[in-house]
Design goal:
Helix content: 10-25%
Radius of gyration: 69 Å
Largest sheet: 5 strands, mixed
Organism: Ovis aries (Sheep)
Shape: elongated
Protein name: Cadherin 7
Number of helices: 7
């Protein structure tokens, strides 16, 4: 059988180890001067055990137990009287001993990486007495290592990053492999590193496992990621050593080594002239191969004729340059603009400035397109002034607007009536002249803000708006008047020259130099002997008494007319009345009572008391009148003819009568007088639907005729009765027919076969008697059959 290189090397190692340690595999006994050992029954010379360590190779694969060593005592004469026993770790389970010879064998395959040594105890016993002939002694069995474990990368696989364009020898990452074999014995655990994949870009230090760059100027934009395979091999990398591998992913991180570049040298955009201010005109972007912060850039307009019209800013999310309008465009003024725009990185890396400038420029041409624009007013606001005394139709001012387009279409003007709801102003549609349409009043509205609309004649949808502020100038058209309704008091014991009231005036007008009012008494009141007026020259006046001895019983109230004149041109005046009441005052001049009734009614009845008495009298009179009226109404009959006082009731549908004995609701005597002729009365509230003929005098006729005439009579009375309700009602009559003086209306006899009565005529009386016709008509037999 052939052996490979690896198996042959392992076999040689096993033989060398076995030869080296074969001389150390037996335990020798020697004498020493230690304590004596006494065995019961006799004495002997003391002896002791001297042990050496036992060694055994791990991973033994043989079928027979592996020989470890031999125990022997000098007491043992080879006659079989001594037996050997083991105890401790692995005794009996892993290690066994021949009790006769002391040979120790390992029965199981041993692994040093699981347990490097075992501690056991050995003892020699007398076979007969089973007593120790030597003291128990401890020894160690060490497991001899072999190279049976490959290096392992416990932290793999690895990921690492290194900046692009790094110089050769830049450290990337360190990898570490561990070997479970014994590092103190041989080279089984001595590892060296090598790179299997990733050359020539990277290298690895054999002893430390540090990975470094091996090529300069590695460009992320060309390739940004590399996959490396690193090998770790024990036995110092020699043949026959075991090895393990791991992967390392190296990513090149970005640096700012690429300047921005515009894809095109020029751009052109068309925009309408009506585009509002702050609108976006265009978006341009310079390409930068870098990423992240290294690709951030700034844009600016470095040259061109649109520096004040346009501006550019960067979109931080897309790194685009956004061109916007700063001022209104006008096709008629300028049809195109040219801008030179520069893009530059915010933060350039000084290491790569030698590669060239980290900026680029391009040209942007903006073409302004003509659009149909609304008319434009010559001023944003037209301030105007007009006197409130101006006549209707007078000119206030003029507004002007023009079509900014090249067609220069004529413009027509109008006023936005939402801003002039009262229609105070008009405007000439062609000239833009604003005139008054109604009288103006500054005190009602001092300023009118109106909007004037200018429309193109050729395109009325194009409407421009102008704003006009019309200020109404004041004239003196309002007379002064009291600032409030003044009412004052004067004490009965007031002294001459005493000020009892101070009055002031107001004026709705607003003169430029302020108000100046002049106060005086009217001509009629100038010579009165009671009060005088003093103008204080500060738009106020004081009212003074001229005498003393005011008495309420003589005159309780005085009305003093005061004449007020303003300083306008022309001046206006008004007369205002001051009410002065005479009051009884205390010693401090405080009014106590100002009523004069106390002197007029010395008996003590006040005006309130008299009013209460009069109210009571009137209430009694009204009650008396009501009582008299109600009594008169009770005496009046419901029917004008007393002879025709036939009582009728509107009864409930669920009310059952009491028969012949129920005479409370009806006048039985009146029902029995059937042959009394009554005058027909015309009902005033309705027009009778049927014109009735006068009823002939009753004669001695059959009962059915009596019933028919009786019901006919009551029907006419109900229709023409002015006191009857103007709606259908149920009329109930206490007429019994045969069996009583008035005979009977009972239907009990009507349904008998011997009855000769015929009520078919009820069908001709209308819907009011439909139910009776159904009950008493010819069809009754079928109803009750």
């Amino acid at each position: 059988m052939k052996l490979g290189k690896v198996e042959f090397c392992h076999f040689l190692q096993l033989i060398a180890l076995f030869l080296c340690f074969s001389g150390m595999s037996q335990a020798e006994l020697s004498r020493s001067g230690s304590k004596p050992y006494f065995q019961s029954g006799r004495s002997r010379t003391k002896r002791s055990w001297v042990w050496n360590q036992f060694f055994v190779l791990e991973e033994y694969m043989g079928s027979d137990p592996l020989y470890v060593g031999k125990l022997h005592s000098d007491v043992d004469k080879g006659d079989g009287s001594i037996k050997y026993i083991l105890s401790g770790e692995g005794a009996s389970s892993i290690f066994i001993i021949d009790e006769n010879t002391g040979d120790i064998h390992a029965t199981k395959r041993l692994d040093r990486e699981e347990q490097a040594y075992y501690t056991l105890r050995a003892q020699a016993l007398d076979r007969l007495t089973n007593k120790p002939v030597e003291p128990e002694s401890e020894f160690v069995i060490k497991i001899q290592d072999i190279n049976d474990n490959e290096p392992r990368f416990l932290d793999g696989p690895y990921t690492a990053g290194v900046p692009e364009m790094s110089p050769v020898g830049t450290s990337v990452v360190q990898v570490t492999a561990t070997d479970a074999d014994d590092p103190t014995y041989g080279n089984s655990a001595r590892v060296v590193y090598s790179i299997l994949q990733g050359q020539p870009y990277f290298s690895v230090e054999p002893k430390t496992g540090v990975i470094k760059t091996a090529l300069p100027n590695m460009d992320r934009e060309a390739k940004d990621q590399y996959l490396l395979v690193i090998q770790a091999k024990d036995m110092v990398g020699q043949n026959g050593g075991l090895s393990g591998t791991t992967s390392v992913t190296v990513t090149l991180t970005d640096v700012n080594d690429n300047p921005p570049r515009f894809p095109r040298r020029s751009y052109q955009y068309n925009v309408p002239e009506s585009l509002p201010v702050a609108s976006v005109v265009a978006r341009i972007k310079a390409a930068d191969a870098d990423i992240g912060a290294n690709a951030e850039m700034d844009y600016k307009i470095v040259d061109g004729d649109g520096l004040g019209i346009f501006k550019i800013a960067v979109d931080k999310d897309t790194q685009e340059g956004i061109i916007t309008i700063q001022k209104d465009l006008d096709f008629e003024a300028k049809t195109s603009y040219t801008l030179r725009i520069e893009a530059a990185n915010k933060d350039a890396d000084p290491r790569f400035l030698s590669l060239g400038p980290f900026s680029d420029t391009t040209t942007v041409k903006i073409i302004v397109e003509d659009v149909d624009e609304p008319p434009v007013f010559s001023a944003p606001l037209y301030p105007m002034e007009v006197s409130e005394a101006t006549q209707v139709g007078n000119i206030i001012g003029t507004v002007a607007a023009h079509d900014p387009d090249s067609s220069n279409s004529p413009v027509r003007y109008s006023i936005d009536r939402n801003t002039d709801l009262e229609r105070y102003f008009n405007i000439d549609a062609n000239s833009g002249v604003i005139t008054t349409a109604k009288s103006l009043d500054r005190e009602t509205n001092a300023v009118h803000n109106i909007t004037v609309l200018a429309m193109e004649s050729q395109n009325p949808s194009q409407v421009g708006r102008g704003y006009v502020a019309i200020t109404i100038l004041d004239i003196n058209d309002n007379a002064p008047e009291f600032a409030m309704d003044y009412e004052t008091t004067v004490c009965e014991n007031a002294q001459p020259g005493q000020v009892i009231q101070k009055v002031s005036a107001v004026d709705k007008d607003e003169p430029a130099n302020g108000h100046q009012f002049y106060f005086s008494l009217t001509t009629d009141a100038t010579n009165n002997h009671n009060f005088s007026l003093k103008d204080n020259k500060d738009n106020t006046a004081s009212i003074l008494t001229r005498r003393n001895g005011f008495r309420r019983q003589e005159q309780s109230v005085y009305y003093l007319p005061i004449f007020i004149v303003d300083s306008g041109s022309p001046s206006l005046s008004s007369t205002n009345t001051l009410t002065i009441r005479v009051c009884d005052c205390d010693a401090d001049g405080v009014a106590q009572t100002c009523n004069a009734e106390a002197y007029v009614l010395p008996a003590g009845l006040s005006t309130g008391a008299l009013i209460a008495i009069l109210a009571c009298v009137l209430t009694l009179l009204v009650l008396i009148l009501l009582i008299v009226t109600m009594r008169r109404r009770k005496k009046e009959p419901l029917i004008f003819d007393e002879e025709r006082d036939i009582r009728e009731n509107i009864v409930r549908y669920d009310d059952e009568g009491g028969g012949e004995e129920d005479t409370e609701a009806f006048d039985m005597a009146a029902l029995r007088n059937l042959n009394v002729m009554r005058d027909t009365k015309t009902r005033r509230d309705v027009t009778p639907e049927i014109q009735f003929l006068s009823r002939p005098t009753f004669k001695s006729i059959p009962d059915n005729v009596i019933f028919r005439e009786f019901i006919w009579e009551r029907l006419k009375e109900a229709d023409v009765d002015p006191c009857a309700p103007p709606y259908d009602s149920l009329q109930t009559y206490a007429f019994e027919g045969n069996g009583s003086v008035a005979e009977s209306l009972s239907s009990l006899d009507s349904i008998s076969s011997n009855s000769d009565q015929n009520y078919d005529y009820l069908s001709d009386w209308g819907p009011r008697f439909k139910r009776l016709a159904d009950m008493y008509g010819t069809g009754q037999e079928s109803l009750y059959s």
